[in-house]
Amino acid sequence: MIEHIVKAIEQHPLQSISFSTFMELALYHPTEGYYMKQKQKIGKGGDFYTTSSVSPIFGEVLTTVFIELIEKSKVDPIIVELGGGNGSFARHIVETWSSESSATFQAGYYYIVETSPYHQTLVKEKVKEYKNVFVVNDFEQIKDMHSNFNGIIFSNEFFDAFPVDCVRMVNGEIKELRITFEKELKVLEYPLENKNIKDFLEEYDVQLSEGQTYEVPLSMCRYIENLGHDVDKAVIFTIDYGYRDEEWNLPYHREGSLRGYYQHQLITDPLKHVGEMDLTTHIHLDKLIKAGSKSGLNVYGVCRQDEFLVKAGILNRLEEHANLNPFSEASKKNRAIRSLIMQGGISSSFQVVVQTKNVDAKILTETI
Fold it and tell me: What would the pLDDT profile of 47-61 be if each residue is shown by its tens digit?
């Protein structure tokens, strides 16, 4: 992977590449990129956990919200998952949908958008018995089958893996952070010349303090804006860790949020373990919302994941039982529910953003 990055650096007139180019190569190079490799990434044998890998209960609760929207005829029975991972979330949702609303499931479609051939294989194996579940490379393939898209789109820890550009305020001047190679990969400060970054900072009125490092989510904003153009009627759920604008200005975020996860260890230097390590950032929630509004996406609301799960009825799934065995299915299920809603638990770090297009907000108020 280093060789591919060095080659890109050598071919650039500045003898350097942007952080977004570096991340694109490190994560998505066709053969050497982290997400494209034939290796386990999620779970005990991988580098990180996701909330959907904790227990099926997360997918079950989310699916009940989807089913209610579909059964009340507010959207067609089409569900799209952005980023399939290892297929566990898809499996949980499809099982719940088929068992709790068989009629809408039989009439519907479930699509998983996944670019990695390795992860496509994992997902297909998890859902192979379902004839109306499909794995696609991108949303364009779904548009070809549903030109006036009407349905539900959701993602779980999807946008945090998008490449970002990085800038820093140095002596009152905004510099771009770029990657170069001098015996090893290094980060250098360059005068900001990238027009797209300049336009973003101006459009979103980004104000930096001295020494502050800031990640510019151009690719995330493009994606959500394009998604808004691609749908006719939809409810879009984005589940991820991120901050609102006022939070990004707090002192403890002045170094930015880009980091890596390698064998379940947090790595603060993104230039380590290149191609072998997950790279991730906290997403800019207000930028996601504003970019979506350009293509007609209205924000219904933003809340913490634990609050969302309680509103969606996760407590109704607690089971009363007299079994003293802590490894019984009922005990494990109840522990999973508590872990997802307990104060300071995993859900406290995640936000749920709900955006809509041509869907009456009243139905959402009745649902969540």
Answer: 566 766 667 899 999
